[in-house]
Amino acid sequence: MSRAKVQIDSMSEMSLPLFLPSAPAETRAGAASAPKPPSYLRDHRKRLRSRFLEGGADAMPDYELLELLLMGAIPRRDVKPLARALLEEFNDLASVIAAPAPKLAQQEGVGPSVICALHLAGAIAARTARSRVLNRRVISSWDALLEYCHTVMSHRDVEHVRVLFLDRKNCLLTDEELGRGTVDHVPVYPREILRRALELGASALILVHNHPSGDPTPSQADIAMTERIRQGAEALSLVLHDHLIIGASAEYSFRANGLL
User: Is tRNA processing found in the keyword set (predicted)?
Assistant: First the structure.
């Protein structure tokens, strides 16, 4: 797969204090004396910022949003070629932001500052989505809960298992990642999930895991594992409300499909 060749001076990233720890005084002085971006680039960035502030994200294509994000990480280079190359490599904006650091680092022009900026954007998106459901009744905030699950899991390249722990009012106490596996399998230990529920004083739980293939249809292993956890939860007076499988653009609910 071809992509634009981007030549990035590694020193332009290492001298940037925005995403890295503070540099020594002499390094900061050297950065302050570095040449400014050419006028055409400053004008281009100003236009991008103005369009975003006036029209919002809906008025801009993905590569321009990514370009805006990369501008802070690489302040003195044209980042449009890098934005386009990343989208070509990873297919869409969400996949770029969710891409693992080792895969990002293999892309020409990507250094620590770029990786930090991308993952910071992902962390902020996940934290924002989580705040909409934390300590709220899951039934009344179901759409927000699904949005959170998709934000956190739909673009992962290996399977992850998260468990949402609920109190007696079915409000979300917390959610935790309790398993990570391969592209088509993740080890799940019912005893650990139930032990954690008792530690937290939870009364109910919702299982969530992703299918990196994009198809949320459950496998026979998914169905069998869910039944084991349901039986164990019932023995401990806990309720397994649902098991959600998150795909690329859709989810599968065990309860909605009569499997719970």
Answer: no
Phi and psi (nearest 5°) for 195? -60, -40
Angle of helix 80-90 relative to helix 62-73, nearest 10 degrees, comes to 120
pTM attached to this predicted model: 0.66
CA 206 to CA 202: how far, in whole Å? Answer: 11
User: Residue 195 carries which side chain, given as an amino acid letter?
Assistant: R
- Helices and strands in the chain, H and E counts: 11, 5
Contact call for residues 163 and 180 (beta carbons, < 8 A): no
Q: What is the pLDDT of residues 227-248, one digit of tens each?
A: 999 999 999 999 999 999 999 8
Domains with residue ranges and CATH for the chain:
10-126 (no CATH), 138-253 (3.40.140.10)
Q: What is the residue type of 28? A: R
Other C-beta atoms closer than 10 Å to the C-beta of 123 total 11
Rounded to whole angstroms, the Cα distance separating 16 from 113 reads 8
Q: How far apart are CA 199 and CA 242, in angstroms?
A: 20
Residue from 127, 172, 145 nearest 244 by CA: 145
| CA pair distance 104, 113, nearest whole angstrom | 11
Q: What is the pLDDT of residues 202-217, one digit of tens each?
A: 999 999 999 999 899 9
Give me the phi and psi of 234, to 5 degrees please.
-60, -40
Residue 13 pLDDT: 42
Instruction: Name the DSSP letter for residue 92.
Output: S
